[in-house]
Design goal:
CATH superfamily of the largest domain: Glycogen Phosphorylase B
Bound molecules: adenosine-5'-diphosphate-glucose
Low-confidence stretches: none
CATH topology of the largest domain: Rossmann fold
Structural class: alpha/beta
Strand content: 15-25%
Number of domains: 2
Oligomer: single chain
GO molecular function, one term: alpha,alpha-trehalose-phosphate synthase (UDP-forming) activity
Family: Belongs to the glycosyltransferase 20 family.
CATH architecture of the largest domain: 3-Layer(aba) Sandwich
Pfam families: Glyco_transf_20
Protein name: Trehalose-6-phosphate synthase
Organism: Planobispora rosea
CATH class of the largest domain: Alpha Beta
Strand order of the largest sheet: 5-6-4-1-7-8-9-12-11-10
Shape: globular
Amino acid sequence: MPGTSSFLIVANRLPVDRVGEDMWRRSPGGLVTAIAPVLQRREGAWIGWHGAPDERLDPFEHDGMHLIPVPLSEQEVELYYEGFSNATLWPLYHDVVATPVYSRALWDAYRLVNERFARAAAEAAAPDAVVWVQDYQLQLVPAMLRRLRPDVRIGFFLHIPFPPGELFQQLPWRRELLEGLLGADLVGFQRPGGAANFIRLCRKTLGLQYQKHEIYVEDRVVRAEAFPISVDFGELDVLVREPHIVARAQEIRRDLGNPEHVLLGVDRLDYTKGIGQRLKAFGELLADGSIKPGEAVFVQIATPSRERVEEYIRLRDSIELQVGRINGEQGELGQQPVQYLHQSYDRDELAALYLAADVMVVTPLRDGMNLVAKEYISCRHDLRGALVLSEFAGAAEELKQAFMVNPYDVDGLKRTMLTAMRATPHDLSRRMRSLRRRVATYDVDRWAQDFLAALEA
Ligand code: ADQ
């Protein structure tokens, strides 16, 4: 029996966090902001896990959205989410910067949970519905759903990089994953390179024919293309002009001792983000006297993330050791060059931090897009502020006017951070104007519209 939703989002998580018994709050983040209005307009539904293991919940309404919880057991969280998604796929898709774990038990759980999501979507979708599946945790869902419901139109978007064949081929279940994605009518990637990697792999591994963006799968055509995700430029641009944000930004600078340069990093605490590399570069600049004591402060905000996965536990220890060393060796009484905060902040505080920072340092070793870079740009209507950006972030494809770096090159990183700190106001405003033009025209709303237009064409 088909369901009643003509538009469905399927994602690992529902777009809400629990704030009390049966009380929910919309989760922060661009995806929710972009998709919530589409859902509300189209009477759609969102299928996802609600965040608590071993709990079954009935579908409920929140904020004009129909939400359909998918249950996960404690063990499935461990094997499917922390395991196959975050200890196998995440490192493999990010250039194997950590060693992926290949385990049949993790794969079995991944397949089982993907099947459950596909069944939930099949039950909720109205005849000929549009279903948009999100991200690496659910790559088998498109094919599973197509088997159950050949009538629906299926889109898939991968938020993280899609790796080159040399790496992807390591995966013992590479055929199954490619076939899973090929269940979709449209497979979206952050960069054209991701789409090209995928198309080449379909030819090489599955022997499929293709032309440009189209792959021929039996009697169907699957399109694979890039749709670079973005942020809500307009919302940030308005928010950051509000007096309480401006005042808070000034207060932050004062609390830091009004240094000449405030450098800022904002990331989930993840080994792909290059936090250690940027701290090393900053520490060396202090040690070799390129930055005078008290001249600059580095604020590193690191959101707690995946705290039960082993690599993340090790990363936290190593970053905290590094911060302690730099402050111990280069600091003075009452004056620490690195301010490290292992905490989450709300939109207002993040906006104030962006406004307070002279140099935003975004140095991932590999990143699907990196929204922090685009958020920073959205907040700098004053045309001040410098963006130091890794060439390995998806965002580098669009944000050509940033100060580009290779985060593996410590000397290059040091040089570029200094160049950004010493840049003239004229140079900064010229760069920022062009960066803002890009993010303003290609915002998150446009991203969702473009993807859905291509899916429904
Ligand atoms: P992430 O790896 O999480 O996303 P990113 O794109 O930078 O990386 O998004 C992080 C988001 O979390 C930003 O909106 C940021 O403001 C917020 N955030 C970070 N630190 C925070 C803190 N301390 N407190 C509160 N909020 C914080 C994945 C991919 C990316 C891709 C996005 C979207 O890895 O490459 O850009 O999905 O597709």
